[in-house]
Design a protein that fits this description.
The structure holds two protein chains of two kinds.
Chain A (H helix, E strand, L loop, with lengths): L1 H6 L3 H15 L8 H27 L6 H19 L3 H23 L4 H21 L1 H4 L12 E3 L7 E3 L3 H24 L1 H11 L1 H6 L4 H27 L9 H14 L4 H24 L7 H15 L8 H16 L9
Antiparallel strand pairs in A: 1-2
Helix pairs in contact in A: 3-8, 3-11, 3-12, 3-13, 4-5, 4-6, 4-11, 5-11, 8-9, 9-11, 12-13, 12-14
Chain B lengths: L1 H29 L6 H18 L4 H24 L7 H23 L18 E5 L2 E4 H23 L1 H11 L1 H6 L4 H27 L6 H16 L4 H22 L4 H15 L17
Antiparallel strand pairs in B: 1-2
Classes of the chains: A mainly alpha, B mainly alpha.
């Protein structure tokens, strides 16, 4: 089978391979400036974040409004370990992953028993507390002054007598980001098809049915939340070493909202949809950032558009641009019922 | 010091209570956390300042007018954003609510700018600044008394409406069971609109009073106030109107003492902390009993 596929790749595989090739040669195309490269890296970063967040609302049907808290934890883990101990980025990635997962478990274990809206609110409160902590614990994080001068990523082979290569400019980060997106994508695809993924889908589609099939709701939800948090933290660790400056303002609720918006736009639970959502919203955000001042409007106004997108999507296409059938059916369920069975609506509990 | 903090806490707590009541009423009738409620509060303050500075209306008339506008905004919010999603899963409605909140907040930023605005000099009634009562070394200005008075009057009025009038009865019926209420001939959608109007008017009034109290109005003011009021509603048991009132006052006092005696840096953290602890330990809150009925999605 493997050989056959290599000779005759399916349409999906062709698209994926050509996208990857395009991504690899993109920096060498003539019209690509450093600025555009920067934005593409930003898109990749948000892809990682959105794929991570997607696990909770997309795979489990729970609303997580505090995702940026984990992103911030990861970023500051990375920033502080670099700032104080000069730790290598390659060690920081697993540490950030573990730290994110630990916080995910700490927050998730007591709260995932709650119903949807309560859970959403608790996660929101958590992310606000993270921002407050980062702002006020000046001895640790330098607070609102921010954490400047974080080292860039480097590949240090001096231990083995090799050279030390520092990441300068956008190009090396671009390829690092591609690798990270690929890894995230691989993990997500594998999880989706695993026992774990199927258990999550069962929970999303019908909790009661899932429980009666022997799925331990709390355990599976906590695992989902921890993995999601861990990917958020990894995204944060990359962010810290890429922009080399951190401040608590970067981790406000807006970011959670933006990432959630990507998922909603692309299609909750659909890995490719979520990535498209990241591409669309980051590009749109950058275009509006240029465009709005020309129209004499404040830059923050671009969130106006994001809010509107969110509302309109929920109204007209609640399962996103690339809907997956199960979510689409769930989102439509109530409406269809209402149209067809209106006279008997009283019978429905 | 103690008394001063207590007074501050009560004033702020009363205002939280007025916003929290809106959250809890709306949650009661449609089981939705109306994230955009904080934005209605912010709009209230902006309406008032617009009426005063552009139309030159006196404070009290602007106050009433902008309460009315907020009530209309609340109803519009429901009709435009939430009503089409009545039958959808909770997740969809919740995401819409967040979307509307962000939308309104940024709309205000585009219309009025992001800088904090004060009320134009001399437009607030002059006696507000004057000291009304002094006891135990604490000066109570007339403005404190005004806020106390308005809060108490509105809370009593609201209770009267809910307990004694036909509309209040209909609201309680809808909160208990929408389908049965519809069967008895109650126009459910109209009752929901009415609830949004009440919640909007109260939220707007709270916004104006806070805006005038700190004399600073800015588009993101609704965000933090909204979260704190929501924490108050949770503390009181969401769905319970007296619970929300008590929750608001308790939270306001706790915040004033916490900021005064523990750490003013974590002032906002107190309400988030209270909220998380209450949700984890006693999710039904002080007075709530609604949680069981609304366990899973509608």
């Amino acid at each position: 089978m493997g050989k056959l596929r290599l000779q005759n790749p399916s349409r999906g595989a062709k698209i994926r391979i050509s996208l990857l090739i395009l991504a690899l040669i993109l920096p060498f195309l003539p019209f690509i400036s450093d600025y555009i490269l920067h934005i593409v890296i930003l898109i990749f970063l948000y892809m990682i974040l959105a794929l991570g967040l997607n696990i909770v609302p997309g795979f489990n049907g729970l609303l997580d409004l505090g995702y940026v808290g984990f992103y911030g934890i990861g970023a500051y883990t990375s920033g502080l370990l670099t700032y104080h101990f000069g730790l290598s980025y390659w060690l920081i990635i697993p540490l950030a992953f573990i730290n994110g997962a630990i916080w995910g478990i700490l927050l998730g274990a007591p709260t995932l028993r709650l119903t949807g809206d309560y859970f959403a609110i608790v996660t929101f409160g958590f992310s606000e507390l993270v921002v407050l902590f980062l702002t006020n614990e000046i001895w640790l994080t330098r607070g609102p002054m921010g954490l400047p001068g974080i080292d860039v990523v480097s590949i240090d082979l001096t231990l083995f007598g090799g050279p030390k290569w520092e990441f300068i400019g956008e190009l090396p980060y671009y390829y690092l980001a591609i690798v990270m997106v690929m890894v995230t994508l691989f993990v997500m695809n594998r999880i989706q098809d695993s026992r774990l993924g199927r258990a999550w889908f069962a929970i999303r589609d019908d909790e009661v049915a899932a429980v009666s099939c022997g799925i331990n709701l709390l355990a599976y939800k906590v695992i989902a939340f921890a993995i999601s948090a861990a990917f958020g933290a990894v995204g944060g660790s990359f962010f810290a070493r890429w922009v080399t400056f951190l401040s608590p303002d970067m981790f406000k609720f807006w970011e959670s909202f933006l990432i959630l918006c990507m998922i909603v736009l692309g299609g909750m639970g659909n890995i490719w949809g979520v990535m498209i959502g990241a591409v669309v919203l980051v590009s749109m955000s950058e275009v509006l950032r240029e465009l709005l001042p020309l129209l004499g409007l404040p830059v923050e106004g671009r969130f106006l558009a994001f809010g509107l997108i969110m509302v309109l999507m929920m109204r007209y296409r609640p399962a996103g641009i690339l809907p997956i059938p199960a979510v689409a059916a769930q989102m439509r369920a109530g409406r269809v019922k209402r149209k067809k069975v209106k006279p008997t609506v009283g019978m429905k509990k | 010091m103690f008394l001063q903090q207590l007074v501050n806490g009560l004033v702020i707590g009363g205002i939280y209570a007025m916003i929290a009541v809106g959250y809890t009423m709306i949650y009661g009738v449609i089981q939705l956390i109306n994230f955009a409620h904080g934005e209605i509060y912010m709009l209230g303050a902006f309406f008032a300042i617009t009426f005063i500075s552009f139309l030159g209306l006196p404070f009290y008339i602007a106050f009433l007018l902008s309460m009315t506008c907020c009530a209309i905004c609340g109803v519009l919010l429901d009709i435009v954003a939430y009503r089409p999603l009545r039958q959808s899963p909770r997740l969809a409605a919740l995401i819409t609510a967040i979307g509307m909140s962000i939308f309104l907040q940024n709309l205000a930023m585009v219309i009025w700018g992001s800088r904090p605005k004060p009320f134009p000099h001399g437009t607030l009634p002059a006696y507000f600044e004057k000291t009304a009562v002094t006891f135990g070394g604490v000066n109570l200005s007339w403005f404190h008394l005004f806020i106390f008075g308005i809060t108490i009057v509105m809370m009593f009025g609201l209770n009267l409406i809910i307990q004694k009038t036909r509309w209040g009865k209909a609201m309680r019926a809808v909160a208990q069971n929408k389908t049965m209420a519809a069967l008895t001939g109650i126009n459910v959608n109209r009752v929901i609109s009415y609830t949004f109007a009440l919640a909007g008017a109260l939220g707007g009034a709270a916004g104006i009073m806070v805006g005038a109290f700190y004399n600073s109005i800015y588009p993101t003011m609704g965000y933090i106030a909204g979260v704190k009021a929501f924490a108050a509603a949770v503390l009181g048991g969401i769905g319970s109107v007296p619970g929300a009132m008590l929750g608001g006052v308790v939270l306001g006092v706790a915040e004033a003492f916490g900021a005064g005696y523990l750490s003013s840096l974590y002032r906002d953290g107190i309400s988030y902390g209270v909220m998380i602890i209450v949700i984890i330990l006693i999710p039904a809150g002080l007075f709530g009993k609604v949680l069981k009925e609304t366990k899973k999605s509608m």
